[in-house]
């Protein structure tokens, strides 16, 4: 056995190392099978290489014969010479040198690898550029081809050879095509011939409108003339599709949620055929233009061809593996186009039921929602779930054009008869019109908020466009103005169609009704909900309808101030692209507390002390005097930011928190849907939709309900990291899913509870009625009626109390009195399943004999949407059912209470976490939108951005970039470079809550140019003071001041700050302006001596009436003969001294008070206003001086001042001179300043108006006074 211990290894190893003084254990021992000795492998291999024999016995030995021995290597002691301190230091030095050498080698290898990687990246980037250029050329060629096709009548291109690979989509991706062999040359030629014929006919017609076409003014007078609600089952209400027979417009085709297809004759007002066979609801129907054949499609993945005359299905086309969403008939009438949720469109032969071709766009990967043929039949359009409209070439089976622009799944498309226009509708409450010649959107019809577009259709002439959805709207083409609007449907309108030459309009909806509109008078027979050959309502009888109320859905929109930056068509001075500035224009800058959508740190409703106003004012004075940036806009520079790919998100987040920069769009020609981070933006938008659902559920179901909107989070959270966003997404989706499930269960339980309570009420209220009801005695014993089928039957249920009179009247008239009807009110009020209101339902019990009358009664009950229940004939069965109902009601109440408790737990959890989620997702979305403005570098290692930044804030900018890199763990910091700008920088004024209102007033008239003097600083005093000059009143001023002071103290209250009322937001934004206006009004009101338009007696009056009696100017005869007495100030003692402050209160007793005060106020306003204007013109001196425009001082400023002062300055001089020069004794001789001012402009002289001073005429007209 080849076993050896350590001692043997050591002993035998010494024989191969006789000259070694140490007895060392071999490192790699091995055994020789020739001598069975153990050797050191290194030494024995060397010996064998020299001698080729075993050193012990001299027999031949080779290296292959050696056998290794596995041993545990002991730690060898160091040599005695290595135990000294110098030896240890030397060994450490050697190890350090070895480590440094190894590190240097690794660095060299890393540098070499980097160079190789950089070279490879450059090659890859060059290849990508070449590929992009080629793709662009291919796309341009396809667009040119698609543009030429409509203009050239869609002339067919050359046939594709069989060896040619599969066609590519619009994006260059190959598309999966199955059964292409079905498109034979004969079929293609047939399609081409039909397209040529149609194009020729359309050219012959030209732009002429048929003479029989209804004019727009006549169309606007259309009203509803008929409504039919009995076509489809009431148990599964809703008509989902509609079509009119082109050859016989009296026949209307409908497809319902009850899986049936119905052909209805409009003139006869009866059903022609009811076609049954689909396993699911019918979503699309088409009437063949020349044959008695109809087509239908359903989510059961089948397309059925029906014979109207035979009433049976003649063909089933199975072209798809998922729900069929769209159906269109080719102009030849032989082929069908279908679209499906399986992402395929199919072209099928209706004669054979064979699928000729089936195509999908691999690059899109989304479901198709609708499909429609072009009038010529060679191209067609499809709508997708990702808001795209795709135009396809049928012969080549390729996607030739795409129309992006909608923001929701496309629901309907329609081609105009002229072949040039395409109308599309989507779930974004808009209808877009596309020009197929220019391949662009030329008109967008924006509908009401939450408007759902379900159907679009042009009339046969292409003159009118009908839109069906939340209501029915008809637009006239080219002007695209609304002609009429119908809101008769109580549910969603799912189909709308024109009659021949638009002579009538028909519609169908989810309210199970088919309605017709034209200009004829309304007739009662067409208003009935049903009609049978045996029975007709009496003439003039109408039924009163009570449509359920529809609550207007709340529309939550995130504006620019709520973390949604958008590009507006504004001049550069007022455009804002910063996502971190709520409601901020380029010419303004908020303080840090308003940069994010956040509240104060003190929590909602926190009361601030009155010193806050003084702090803001002192801060304003500091910036004005020390910094000077409020007097003149701040210096702004253009910077280029280089953001590392790994840290770009955090860098932009830091910049947003500081609010330092305004980004520029470096991709102006790139579509918003093609930008790099559009996927992340959509992800945030989906989260916002989830949050909107959670908020709606909170407002709808939380008990007790919130008294105000959800409070903002405190403290305001930062933008989430990508992994945190995933957590938010998962938790929000889970919470929303649980809420949907629990709410659905809660609503289902409530509906069941209501139904059971209704059933219980029916049995309880009618129990005493049925005990005595038996067949009429006159029928007993007669042979004619002696039959077993004559027995008493019952129909019992509940009806809304509003419908009871019309319901009872119609039952009596329809059944000719052969029924017995009893109505009783239920004792308890129950919830209405549709509106949620509490209703005291009315129980009815109908007793009848015979099946025919029973069918009529049931139809009438269905028409009135009553809730009917099974009614046993025996008393024992009814009592047994009552006992069972009581137990089920108690069980459902128990389960409902537990469900409600769990729902409240979910809602409270949503209330606690939703505000933080909303703010964080809004910040994340804003960051992604900013990143979309950036341009990637050549190597795609970093993002390049350009932004405007205040020069004084550049150090903070660099600090923010470093902090963003630190948070990301990036080894390379982001940095910036200053760039020269060819365009003037934006105007930037630092603002706070105090100055924002005044700056907004100035910006409303015009934003100052870059580095111009800011006039808003001076309007802080001048604007409120000018207001007070005319408004001055102490009482009203106090009211204004107190109201404004309350808004200032409560400005951090979220309830006030987040109010959406426009008037309130305007007042709240100008709270400091209103405060100053009130304070100045108190001051000027004290001058006018008015408080609520009443005089105030603060000091003794300077006027006395005693001297007038003493001088015998007033006596008894004067008092008796004069209604008004005039006090003469020239009489000694009448006027002693001026009033100490303001106007003497005695003027309140004068009959010329208004004349005096209005003249005084007007003159003071003129004086202050002219001083204000002159000061504003003088401010331009500082602008000219700053920009070095010295010539403008002499040729613009000085002429302006000369002209202004020569006219308005002279007017002020005359006012002041008249006040000073004329004493009370001379007041009767005082001239009219207004007449003098008019004479100055007319260069005339008025002798009746005395001169104000000597040489006045010469001064005014430069002519001597003769």
From TrEMBL:
<protein>
    <recommendedName>
        <fullName>Pre-mRNA-processing factor 19</fullName>
        <ecNumber>2.3.2.27</ecNumber>
    </recommendedName>
</protein>
<keyword id="KW-0833">Ubl conjugation pathway</keyword>
<comment type="similarity">
    <text>Belongs to the V-ATPase 116 kDa subunit family.</text>
</comment>
<dbReference type="InterPro" id="IPR020472">
    <property type="entry name" value="WD40_PAC1"/>
</dbReference>
<keyword id="KW-0747">Spliceosome</keyword>
<keyword id="KW-0227">DNA damage</keyword>
<keyword id="KW-0812">Transmembrane</keyword>
<comment type="similarity">
    <text>Belongs to the WD repeat PRP19 family.</text>
</comment>
<feature type="repeat" description="WD">
    <location>
        <begin position="368"/>
        <end position="402"/>
    </location>
</feature>
<feature type="transmembrane region" description="Helical">
    <location>
        <begin position="1166"/>
        <end position="1187"/>
    </location>
</feature>
<keyword id="KW-0853">WD repeat</keyword>
<feature type="domain" description="U-box">
    <location>
        <begin position="25"/>
        <end position="87"/>
    </location>
</feature>
<keyword id="KW-1133">Transmembrane helix</keyword>
<dbReference type="InterPro" id="IPR002490">
    <property type="entry name" value="V-ATPase_116kDa_su"/>
</dbReference>
<comment type="function">
    <text>Ubiquitin-protein ligase which is mainly involved pre-mRNA splicing and DNA repair. Required for pre-mRNA splicing as component of the spliceosome.</text>
</comment>
<comment type="pathway">
    <text>Protein modification; protein ubiquitination.</text>
</comment>
<feature type="transmembrane region" description="Helical">
    <location>
        <begin position="1193"/>
        <end position="1217"/>
    </location>
</feature>
<feature type="transmembrane region" description="Helical">
    <location>
        <begin position="1016"/>
        <end position="1049"/>
    </location>
</feature>
<keyword id="KW-0472">Membrane</keyword>
<feature type="transmembrane region" description="Helical">
    <location>
        <begin position="1069"/>
        <end position="1088"/>
    </location>
</feature>
<dbReference type="InterPro" id="IPR015943">
    <property type="entry name" value="WD40/YVTN_repeat-like_dom_sf"/>
</dbReference>
<feature type="repeat" description="WD">
    <location>
        <begin position="275"/>
        <end position="316"/>
    </location>
</feature>
<dbReference type="InterPro" id="IPR038959">
    <property type="entry name" value="Prp19"/>
</dbReference>
<dbReference type="InterPro" id="IPR001680">
    <property type="entry name" value="WD40_rpt"/>
</dbReference>
<keyword id="KW-0508">mRNA splicing</keyword>
<keyword id="KW-0406">Ion transport</keyword>
<dbReference type="InterPro" id="IPR055340">
    <property type="entry name" value="RING-Ubox_PRP19"/>
</dbReference>
<feature type="repeat" description="WD">
    <location>
        <begin position="403"/>
        <end position="444"/>
    </location>
</feature>
<dbReference type="Pfam" id="PF08606">
    <property type="entry name" value="Prp19"/>
</dbReference>
<dbReference type="InterPro" id="IPR036322">
    <property type="entry name" value="WD40_repeat_dom_sf"/>
</dbReference>
<dbReference type="Pfam" id="PF01496">
    <property type="entry name" value="V_ATPase_I"/>
</dbReference>
<comment type="subunit">
    <text>Homotetramer.</text>
</comment>
<keyword id="KW-0677">Repeat</keyword>
<keyword id="KW-0808">Transferase</keyword>
<dbReference type="InterPro" id="IPR013915">
    <property type="entry name" value="Prp19_cc"/>
</dbReference>
<dbReference type="InterPro" id="IPR013083">
    <property type="entry name" value="Znf_RING/FYVE/PHD"/>
</dbReference>
<keyword id="KW-0234">DNA repair</keyword>
<feature type="repeat" description="WD">
    <location>
        <begin position="486"/>
        <end position="518"/>
    </location>
</feature>
<keyword id="KW-0813">Transport</keyword>
<dbReference type="InterPro" id="IPR003613">
    <property type="entry name" value="Ubox_domain"/>
</dbReference>
<keyword id="KW-0539">Nucleus</keyword>
<feature type="coiled-coil region">
    <location>
        <begin position="725"/>
        <end position="752"/>
    </location>
</feature>
């Amino acid at each position: 056995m080849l076993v050896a211990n350590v001692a043997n290894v050591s002993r035998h190893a010494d024989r191969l190392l006789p000259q070694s003084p140490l007895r060392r254990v071999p490192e790699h021992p091995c055994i020789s099978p020739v001598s069975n000795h153990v050797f050191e492998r290194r030494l024995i291999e060397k010996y064998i290489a020299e001698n080729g024999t075993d050193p012990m016995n001299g027999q031949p030995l080779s290296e292959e014969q050696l056998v290794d021995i596995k041993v545990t290597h002991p730690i060898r002691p160091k040599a005695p010479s290595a135990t000294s301190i110098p030896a240890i230091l030397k060994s450490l030095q050697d190890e350090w040198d070895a480590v440094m050498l190894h590190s240097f080698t690794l660095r060299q290898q890393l540098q070499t690898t980097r160079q190789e990687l950089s070279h490879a990246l450059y090659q890859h980037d060059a290849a990508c550029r070449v590929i992009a250029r080629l793709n662009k050329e291919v796309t341009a060629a396809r667009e040119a081809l698609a543009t030429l096709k409509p203009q050239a009548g869609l002339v067919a291109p050359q046939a594709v050879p069989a060896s040619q690979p599969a066609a590519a989509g619009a994006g260059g991706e190959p598309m999966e095509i199955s059964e292409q062999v079905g498109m034979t040359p004969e079929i293609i030629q047939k399609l081409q011939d039909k397209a040529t014929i149609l194009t020729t006919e359309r050219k012959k017609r030209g732009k002429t409108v048929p003479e029989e076409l209804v004019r727009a003014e006549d169309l606007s007078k259309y009203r509803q003339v008929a409504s039919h609600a009995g076509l489809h089952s009431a148990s599964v209400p809703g008509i989902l599709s509609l079509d009119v027979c082109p050859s016989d417009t009296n026949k209307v085709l409908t497809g319902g949620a009850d899986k049936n297809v119905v052909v209805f004759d409009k003139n006869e007002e009866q059903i022609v055929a009811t076609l049954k066979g689909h396993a699911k609801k019918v979503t699309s129907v088409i009437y063949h233009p020349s044959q008695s054949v109809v087509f239908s499609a359903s989510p059961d993945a089948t397309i059925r061809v029906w014979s109207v005359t035979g009433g049976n299905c003649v063909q089933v086309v199975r072209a798809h593996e998922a729900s069929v969403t769209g159906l269109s008939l080719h102009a030849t009438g032989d082929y069908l186009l279908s679209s499906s949720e399986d992402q395929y469109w199919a072209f099928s032969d209706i004669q054979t039921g064979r699928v000729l071709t089936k195509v999908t766009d691999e690059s899109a990967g989304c479901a198709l929602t609708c499909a429609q043929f072009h009038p010529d039949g060679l191209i067609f359009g499809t709508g997708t779930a990702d808001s795209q409209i795709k135009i396809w070439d049928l012969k080549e089976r390729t996607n030739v054009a795409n129309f992006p622009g909608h923001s929701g799944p496309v629901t309907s498309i329609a081609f105009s008869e002229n072949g040039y226009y395409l109308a599309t509708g989507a779930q974004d409450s808009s209808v877009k019109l596309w020009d197929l010649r220019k391949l662009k959107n030329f008109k967008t019809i924006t509908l009401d908020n939450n408007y759902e577009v379900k159907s679009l259709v042009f009339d046969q002439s292409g003159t009118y466009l009908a839109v069906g959805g939340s209501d029915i709207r008809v637009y006239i083409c080219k002007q695209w103005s609304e002609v009429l609007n119908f809101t008769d449907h109580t549910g969603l309108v799912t189909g709308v169609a024109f009659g021949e030459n638009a002579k009538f309009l028909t519609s169908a909806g989810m309210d199970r009704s088919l309605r017709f509109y034209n200009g004829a008078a309304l007739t009662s027979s067409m208003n009935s909900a049903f009609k049978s050959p045996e029975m007709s309502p009496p003439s003039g009888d109408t039924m009163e309808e009570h449509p359920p109320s529809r609550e207007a859905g709340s529309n939550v929109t995130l504006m620019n101030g709520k973390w949604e930056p958008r590009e507006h068509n504004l001049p550069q001075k007022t455009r804002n692209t910063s996502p971190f500035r709520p409601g901020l224009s380029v010419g303004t800058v908020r303080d840090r507390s308003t940069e994010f959508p956040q509240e104060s740190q003190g929590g909602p409703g926190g009361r601030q002390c009155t010193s806050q106003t003084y702090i803001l004012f002192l801060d304003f004075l500091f910036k004005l005097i020390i910094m000077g940036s409020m007097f003149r806009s701040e210096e702004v520079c253009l910077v280029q930011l280089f953001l590392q790919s790994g840290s770009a998100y955090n860098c932009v987040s830091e910049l947003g928190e500081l609010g330092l920069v305004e980004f520029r769009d470096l991709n102006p020609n790139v579509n918003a849907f093609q930008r790099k981070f559009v996927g992340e933006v959509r992800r945030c938008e989906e989260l916002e939709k989830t949050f909107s659902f959670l908020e709606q559920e909170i407002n709808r179901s939380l008990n007790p309900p919130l008294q105000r909107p959800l409070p903002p989070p405190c403290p305001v959270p930062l933008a989430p990291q990508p992994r945190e966003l995933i957590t938010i997404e998962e938790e929000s989706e889970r919470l929303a899913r649980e809420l949907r499930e629990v709410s659905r269960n809660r609503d289902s339980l409530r509906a069941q509870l209501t139904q059971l309570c209704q059933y219980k009420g029916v049995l309880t209220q009618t129990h005493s009625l049925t005990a005595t009801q038996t067949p009429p005695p006159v029928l007993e014993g007669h042979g004619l009626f002696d039959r077993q089928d004559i027995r008493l039957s019952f129909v019992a249920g509940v009806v809304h109390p509003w419908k009871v009179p019309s319901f009872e009247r119609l039952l009596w008239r329809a059944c000719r009195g052969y029924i017995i009807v009893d109505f009783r009110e239920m004792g308890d009020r129950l919830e209405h399943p549709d509106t949620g209101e509490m209703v005291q339902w009315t129980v009815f019990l109908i007793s009848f004999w015979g099946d025919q009358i029973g069918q009529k009664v049931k139809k009438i009950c269905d028409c009135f949407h009553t809730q009917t229940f099974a009614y046993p004939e025996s008393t024992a069965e009814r009592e047994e059912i009552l006992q069972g109902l009581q137990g089920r009601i108690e069980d459902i109440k128990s389960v409902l209470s537990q469900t409600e408790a769990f729902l409240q737990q979910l809602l409270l959890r949503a209330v606690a976490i939703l505000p933080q989620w909303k703010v964080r997702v809004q910040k994340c979305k804003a960051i992604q939108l900013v990143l979309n403005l950036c341009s990637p570098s050549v190597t795609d290692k970093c993002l390049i951005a350009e932004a405007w930044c205040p020069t004084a804030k550049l150090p903070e900018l660099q600090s923010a970039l470093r902090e963003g890199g630190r948070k990301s763990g990036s080894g390379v910091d982001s940095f910036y470079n200053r760039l020269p700008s060819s365009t003037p920088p934006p105007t930037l004024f630092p603002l706070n809550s105090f100055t924002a209102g005044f700056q907004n007033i100035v910006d409303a008239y015009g934003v100052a140019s870059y580095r111009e003097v800011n006039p808003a600083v001076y309007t802080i005093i001048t604007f409120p003071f000018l207001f007070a000059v005319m408004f001055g009143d102490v009482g009203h001023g106090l009211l204004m001041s107190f109201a404004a002071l309350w808004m200032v103290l409560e400005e951090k209250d979220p309830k006030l700050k987040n109010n959406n009322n426009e008037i309130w937001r305007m007042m709240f934004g100008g709270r400091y302006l209103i405060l100053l206006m009130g304070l100045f009004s108190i001051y000027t009101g004290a001058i006018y001596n008015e408080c609520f338009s009443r005089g105030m007696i603060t000091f003794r009056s300077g006027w006395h009436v005693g001297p007038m009696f003493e001088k015998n100017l007033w006596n008894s005869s004067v008092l008796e003969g004069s209604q008004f007495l005039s006090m003469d100030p020239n009489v000694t003692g009448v006027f002693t001294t001026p009033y100490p402050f303001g106007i003497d209160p005695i003027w309140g007793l004068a009959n010329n008070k208004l004349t005096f005060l209005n003249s005084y106020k007007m003159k003071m306003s003129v004086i202050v206003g002219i001083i204000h204007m002159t000061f504003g013109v003088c401010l331009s001196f500082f602008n000219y001086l700053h920009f070095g425009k010295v010539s403008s001082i002499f040729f613009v400023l000085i002429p302006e001042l000369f002209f202004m002062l020569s006219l308005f300055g002279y007017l002020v001089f005359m006012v002041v001179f008249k006040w000073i020069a004329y004493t009370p004794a001379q007041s009767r001789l005082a001239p009219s300043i207004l007449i003098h001012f008019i004479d100055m402009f007319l260069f005339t002289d008025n002798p009746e108006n005395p001169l104000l001073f000597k040489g006045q005429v010469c001064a005014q007209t430069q002519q001597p006074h003769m």
